[in-house]
């Protein structure tokens, strides 16, 4: 994957330090819980990440660089989560997926103040013991920055957990499996479903451009073998969808109408009438990584 595509879907934001919990308290404006206070939740992410770095074990930058290399071609060993069978409405799908979707946070020191800042993208839980999936390029971006401190995840409930290990990594598939320290909490994993067919409904829960836990719907537009970017590599399955996502959505779950994982957000590609000058945008192609690629990285026990 080219550098611009690697960085395309990772978004950085800077906020100050306080906190309140989204899933538990809703908002501070007097409205009901269907409206959460996004700003306070973003602030909470930084506050809890700072606390975790000060008081809990976490994967530091030096160890992450070593582990990312060692994790290539390794398999994550985990129990198989039973796929869901009941066809659901869109609101029902959202209620299920929001228990497993996470905001990925790359905590860093800007060098100009004493606060911990966050670059954020997306991911999802695949085992109750703390295994999570995201994009390879999300994890790689953490290892690329000398001022990076730690990777953290935030649930829709507002809980924040530090990443402590890189379990498996596949650069060609743009997928990585990481482990967070749950402190004994049992997380809600997303079941891995069957591969989706062209025309199937799909849903995405991601974090595009500061918009935490944005839920979008579309269909599978195309399944094909993507040509390798480097000579000697094999082509990889790719699934293109019409559901919206953008910067910040890297690594987000894509599920079917039963709430089972069918793919993972990876890239966008803009098509212009004038490609050289990037004028007159016609469409944005959404490239995702089908569930078959993630299954190849897992050994079920």
Automatic annotation (TrEMBL):
It holds the Pfam family Trypsin_2. Transmembrane segments: none annotated. InterPro entries: Chloro_Bact_Ser_Proteases, Peptidase_S1_PA, Peptidase_S1C. GO terms for biological process: proteolysis. Residues 1-23 form the signal peptide. Keywords: Hydrolase, Protease, Signal. This is Serine protease.
